[in-house]
Structure formats: structure tokens, C-alpha cells
Design a protein that fits this description.
Elements lengths: L15 H4 L2 H17 L3 H17 L3 H25 L5 H23 L4 H10 L4 H30 L9 H32 L18 H24 L12
Helix pairs in contact: 2-5, 2-9, 3-5, 4-5, 6-7, 7-8
Amino acid sequence: MASMLDIFQYTKKDTPVHRLDPRSKMILSICLSAISLMFLNILPLLILIIALLPIIAAAKSFRRWGRSMRGLMVLVLFIVVFNTLLSAVDNPFSRSLALAVRLVALMTSFSVFFLTVHPDELSQALIQMHVKFEFAFAMSMAMRYVPTLTQEAYAIMDAQRARGVELDKGNIITRIKNIVPIIVPLIIVSIRRALSIAESMESRAFGASENRTYLEHLAFDARDWAVSVLSLFLLVTALYFRFVAGLPEWLLWALPF
């Protein structure tokens, strides 16, 4: 399940998607995520996922995305089973399936951004958007911390297996229970690391000087404008069909149970 975090890990590659400005990819991901949250029908969400796959393939990150989706399947199965059993709406399985597909669409939308934007580029993009340096630094640190968190989760899983904990066996209830001996030490290690980083920053006089200089300056060129305009156009179109015109009948298809 820890592989689910792979889509939040930057991979250094030279692709057209990587070369885009982080701000245009941020607009693209936010617009696609908003569209994902706008609909709760299976077909529109599936179309959105299929439309995103060529972008992920162009970023040469399809394998990492696939590994992350396989890790997400445990959570998807959990949502479908429990929501179907506990939901009081009509066609509970169809609604649960739509919720699961929405989660996949949401994760895929954000993966375009996180797989192709380096934490330093994110920090610089936020600063050039006149966001306070402290907030931009915190966002960059959180993004940089994801690979470390994933590696620590794998190390804890290996340690628990060495102690005889069978993490990969049993039914879904047993597997959910097996997450506890991973989550608790992971939280403790994360808190200790956060305290260590805070002490290191204080020892280096973080925030003592307000006048900062930067090595690189991001440029928003014609390709970034094209991506941003297209993203906003898709968002406005989705808003129109969601709240004014309504979706065509065939897009409202749902399972009868």
C-alpha cells in the first residue's frame, strides 16, 4: 500500500511535460481535480482518467503511476465493500464504484503535477506568485518529505516481517489490522524527524533575513499559456454541463444495483 505514495514522488526526466512551468501544471492539476470532484458518474470520470493517460505517458511516468494505482487498489476495495454494505442510497454498488473511480481520477490528476515538478521548482513558483517564503518553503519540504516517508514505511514493513508479522496474508479485515503496526511507528519517526528539522532550521537562523536572492527564475512561455487556457476552458465547459445544460443521457449510465 506504501507504493500508493509513488505518484507524489518527483522523477527527473527530460520530457515536454517536465519542461512546462510548474504554475501551468498546477493550474492543469487543480482544474482536473475540480472536474473530478464535480461528477459522481462512472463514465465521465472514466473518460477523464483515459484523457489523462497520454499526459502521464508523455511524462514517461506510466510505470510509476501504474505501481501507485496497484497500491491504491486496497483502499479502493475498502471503499467499494464498506460503502456498498453501509450506504442507504439506491444502487449502492454503483455509487460505491463511482466513488472509487473518482478517487482514482483525483489521484491521477494530482500525479501529473507531483511526478513532474521538483520541490525546488514548486517553492520558486509559489514565491513568484507572491506567496510568503515561509509557506512556500513548508510546501516544498512537505513535497520533498514524501519519498523519505515512503522509504521509512518500507523499512518498517521489512522490520515487522522480520518479527513474524504476516502483512500480505489474510482477508481484507486482517490486512487493515496489519496496517496498525506500520502506521504507529511511522508517525513516531515522522514526529522525531520534524523536531530534528525544526532544530536544524533554528540553528541556521531560518527567517533572520527578509531579503532573499534566488539562483533561478521561472519563465512562463507560450506553451504554459496554452496549457493554462486549455485547462480553464475544460473547467468552464465542465461547469456548464454540470450546472446548466446537464450531462447527456448516456453519460448518466449506472449499474442497476
